[in-house]
Design goal:
The protein is α+β, with helices and mostly antiparallel strands. The chain has one domain (8-18, 65-326). Helices cover 48% and strands 6% of the residues. It is built from 12 helices and 4 strands; from the N terminus they run E-H-H-E-E-E-H-H-H-H-H-H-H-H-H-H. The protein has a 4-stranded mixed beta sheet. A hairpin with a 2-residue loop joins strand 3 and strand 4 (122-128). Helix 6 crosses helix 8. The two termini are 33 Å apart. Bound molecules: zinc ion (ZN). The site of zinc ion has 8 residues, from strand 1, helix 6 and helix 8.
Length: 327
């Protein structure tokens, strides 16, 4: 979607589930590639293989273990790195329109939103700290459940509405103690959480980026880079939703963002390949919040995006079309 006088679109969308994590349940896969897994922030794109994408990959090669993202700065650096990988897979014309667009972070840990917009005719992409904390919580719990067969994601999503409903309720951050102590430091869990975080972020920003290069915002012309809006005013920018954000533009952004995510995922193999799964995880999370009516107006992301449950089919269709083209 988009917001405002300084328009902002907000995002979302792609995804079906595909890959079981190879590292699940077994002792950690030894690092194999020579590509050094970025210690904290920069996933390395390695456009090398020509191997056709496996539609239902279940037997992937072991992947290097990734170090955890610790702290706000590490998460932001990771988002920037993911965004760079997405832009690298756009067509030259699309890339020219968006490669200089600033990514700005609102430090509010209780606000959950991510969007694209324009301020004074200049494009920007934005995310709130709360959005990154929510994605991190989803990643931490999903990774735990994949490895240990637990239900920490269900517990988190059951608890988070009440935490979001009050500004002092704790926000979207994962409550302390959500991950059993015995599992918290498991390197496989930490690595998998980072993969999931990246996958969700890739879809989310693939969607927002698409609003710019598809011309929905109307302000991304490949102009010289600007610093972007002052983070202090992002909250205000995000509160004014632009009515032109409509179903056709959302579907277009979901579809293009999904393709972009899949292309970037393919290019980074043998590192973890992003897919529509990231979007599906994102939709599942927001879909659970959508069942809580008061949150529809309290959570920025919900008030500025279409019903998450309607978007999964769009992304699944896009992913199927993408895979058909790979054959
Ligand atoms: Zn959107």
């Amino acid at each position: 979607m988009i917001r405002s006088a300084a328009l902002a679109l907000s995002l979302l969308a792609c995804t079906p589930r595909t890959k079981p994590v190879p590292m699940a349940a077994t002792p950690s896969p030894a690092p194999t590639t020579t590509t050094t897994a970025a210690p904290t922030s920069t996933p390395s794109p390695s456009p090398t293989t020509t191997t056709p994408p496996a539609p239902t990959a279940t037997a992937e090669a072991p992947r290097p273990l990734l170090s955890p993202l610790v702290g706000a700065e590490a998460r932001r650096a990771e988002v920037r790195a993911v965004l760079a990988e997405l832009v690298a897979q756009l067509t030259p014309a699309q890339s020219a329109k968006v490669k200089t667009i600033p990514l700005v972070f609102d430090t509010d840990p209780n606000e959950v939103n991510a969007f694209a917009g324009c301020q004074k005719g200049a494009p920007y992409l934005a995310a709130t700290e709360g959005f990154l904390l929510a994605v991190d919580a989803v990643a931490q719990t999903r990774a735990t459940d994949e490895l240990f067969g637990s239900k920490t994601y269900d517990a988190y999503t059951a608890a988070v509405p009440a935490r979001l409903a009050k500004k002092t309720g704790g926000g979207p951050a994962l409550p302390a103690g959500s991950i059993p102590a015995a599992q918290a430091d498991d390197p496989r869990r930490l690595s998998r959480a980072r993969e999931i975080f990246d996958d969700v972020v890739a879809f989310a920003f693939g969607h927002e980026l698409a609003h710019h290069y598809l011309g929905h915002t109307g302000c991304a012309q490949g102009q010289a880079a600007t610093p972007g809006p002052n983070p202090a005013v992002l909250g205000q920018l995000a509160t004014t939703v632009v009515p032109w954000l409509n179903q056709p533009t959302e579907i277009a952004a979901d579809t293009a963002g999904c393709f972009n995510t899949l292309n970037a995922g393919k290019a980074r193999r043998p590192a973890y390949a992003w897919s529509e799964q990231g979007g599906l995880w994102l939709f599942d999370f927001f879909g659970r919040l959508e069942s809580n009516a008061p949150l529809l107006v309290m959570v920025g992301f919900l008030s500025t995006h279409p019903d998450s449950r309607l978007r999964a089919p769009i992304i699944k269709a896009a992913a199927s079309a993408w895979r058909a083209e790979q054959k």
